[in-house]
Amino acid sequence: QQQVKQSPQSLIVQKGGISIINCAYENTAFDYFPWYQQFPGKGPALLIAIRPDVSEKKEGRFTISFNKSAKQFSLHIMDSQPGDSATYFCAALDSGSARQLTFGSGTQLTVLP
Amino acid sequence: NAGVMQNPRHLVRRRGQEARLRCSPMKGHSHVYWYRQLPEEGLKFMVYLQKENIIDESGMPKERFSAEFPKEGPSILRIQQVVRGDSAAYFCASSSGQGDTDTQYFGPGTRLTVL
Q: Between B16 and B98, whose confidence is greater?
């Protein structure tokens, strides 16, 4: 019940295209959903996050869509750039109890020039 | 740079030796989390600490692993008698402990290789 399932495992997109990464969860106590971006040899960096009281959040080229009834959320990267090539992790947190983030397995995004 | 600092960045140990990983949280942060990342996998929670207290160690293996966050100095994750399966990247994160979401900021990690 603590799992967060992420897909696809890898994604190749042309420059200027839209990258879409999906996550699903089971634990209805999760109430905070951040996305992290990780470059090789670096630590994860917070990209964007959403609470379940909104269905969408946009920051620049990055948008989170959230479907509470389906227990799914997704990251959309518009106008994808080669510099976006990295591994993306979705995560979930139950802020009412444990503070541990539960991470998805990651999506390796490659944006071709 | 007031970010989360971890050292060493790379650590090589032989089987049976001890590994000590250090984490200095961001300035003003009093909450520290340790996560482990195996190759090609996501991060897995290990332990959550506040100054001088272990709050949640539900993700920590019962044997050989220990963590502390003393009143002074960095948080330390200690792995005794390392085995090859301990080879992984170990990430520390810190947060302020304030607010509902209490964003966690990650350090660059320590990559442990056990020979």
A: B16
